[in-house]
Amino acid sequence: MTNPLYDALFGRYADRSTPFLYMPDGTVLSHADFLATAARFAHVLTDAGLAPGDRLAAQVDKSPEALALYAACVQAGVVFLPLNTAYTTDELSYFIEDSGAKLMVCDGADAAALKRITDPLGALLMSLNGDGTGTLADAAASKPATYSTVQRSEDDLAAFLYTSGTTGRSKGAMLSQGNLLSNAKTLVTCWKFDASDVLLHALPIFHTHGLFVATNVTLAAGGSMIFLPKFDPDQVMAQLPKATAMMGVPTFYTRLLADPRLTRDLVEHMRLFVSGSAPLLADTHIEFEARTGHRILERYGMTETNMNTSNPYDGERRAGTVGLPLPGVELRITSRATGEPVAPGDVGQIEVRGPNVFKGYWKMPEKTAAELRDTGFFITGDLGKVDDDGYLHIVGRDKDLIISGGYNIYPKEIELVLDAQPGVLESAVIGVPHDDFGETVVGLIVPLAGETPDIEDIKSATSASLAKFKHPRALIVVDELPRNTMGKVQKAVLRAAHKDLFVPT
Ligand code: MLC
Ligand code: AMP
Question: Which is it for the CA torsion 152, 153, 154, 155, positive or negative?
Answer without folding.
Answer: negative
